[in-house]
Every structure is written in C-alpha cells, then in structure tokens.
Specification:
globular; 6 strands; six-stranded mixed beta sheet; RbsD-like fold; alpha/beta
Length: 188
C-alpha cells in the first residue's frame, strides 16, 4: 500500500509540472540566436520590428514574434549592429509619427527614450509615418514575406522601431540606372 501511495505521488508530481513547450521557450534559442540564424535568410522586403510590450500579436503565417524580455534601446542597438555586419541588407528605418507627441507628463521616461533612440539611429535616415500606416505596410508584407517581431519590455506607446530591409549592394541610384536602361531599351 505504501509503495502504491509513493507511485501515485510521483505521478501527481510529474503530471502537475508545467509543460516545457509552447511559449515557455524551453529548448528554443534566445532572440539573438534566432536573429543571427534568420538574418542571412532575410532580404529586401522583409521587416524586423522592435516593439513595445503592447504591440499586438499578429496571426499572419509570415510573422514570427519573439519575447526578448529586454530593454527596447538595447534590442534596437543589437539588431542594427547585426544588420550592419551583413553583406546583403541595410535597414530602412520607420518610426511612429505619434512618438514626438507622447506627453512626458504621462510617461516619465519618454524623453530619455527619444534622446537615446536619436543616438542609436543617428547613422540612418528615419521616416515617420502614422502608426496605422506602418501597421498596414507590415500586414501587407506579411502575406508573402517574413516579418520578425521582437517584443521588448518597453511600456511607452508609439515607441516601436520598424526596420524594412533593403538590398545593401544595390543603391537607390543603382536601381534608377537599371530602370532607365530598361526603359531606353523598350523593356518594362
């Protein structure tokens, strides 16, 4: 009887343990490892988003969301560093047009964030669009291209950094030359 009770207790303990799959990320690589593994596969038209805590979980099959558990500026800095060390892509940076209007009275750390973000993004041209327009661009892209979303611990609205990847070895001027040559040759 005592042996049966011990076996029952062990079964209860084993069955009551939390699952090691799903969102617990046990056995899954951390976000930096995932980024390093996927970055060589990503190309122009793919997006990498570094987002605040309330960014919605998108259900399109092309969207992969990873919880980083880290500071947004640190994640942004790390992602840009990784991209800068690739041979094939460069980031086109988009920010929410609402960010400059987030009141510092309501969000004490927003000024420090804006200043830090300006320093991190200094080497890059930045485009600002209304949040809804950026989400529409991302949603449309996710129908046929990969979008990697890195969620951070940020709790200030409109702070997400949207990186549309572009070809590093073909400049806008180079693309224009190709299009002009095609037009001159009668091609579409």
């Amino acid at each position: 009887m005592r042996k049966t009770g011990l076996i029952a207790l062990l079964l209860l303990l084993v069955c009551g343990l939390p699952s090691q799959d799903g969102n617990a990320q046990a056995g899954k690589p951390d976000w930096q490892t995932t980024l390093r593994q996927e970055l060589p596969l990503l190309g122009h038209r793919n997006w990498i988003l570094i987002v605040d805590s309330a960014y919605p979980l998108q259900v399109s099959p092309g969207v992969e969301t990873i919880e980083t558990g880290e500071d947004q500026l640190a994640v942004t800095r790390a992602v840009l560093w990784e991209i800068s060390h690739t041979i094939h892509v460069r980031p086109l940076v988009f920010l929410d047009a609402e960010l400059p209007y987030v009141p510092s009275d309501d969000y004490k750390n927003v000024n420090a964030y804006r200043d830090g973000l300006k320093k991190v993004l200094k080497p890059y041209p930045v485009q600002s669009l209304p949040h809804a327009e950026i989400l529409d661009k991302v949603s449309e892209t996710a129908k046929i291209y990969k979008v990697l979303v890195l969620k951070t611990t940020m709790t200030v609205p409109y702070t997400s950094v949207f990186l549309q990847l572009d070809c590093k070895y073909l400049s806008d001027g180079g693309e224009r030359k190709i299009r002009e040559a095609m037009k001159a040759a009668g091609e579409r």
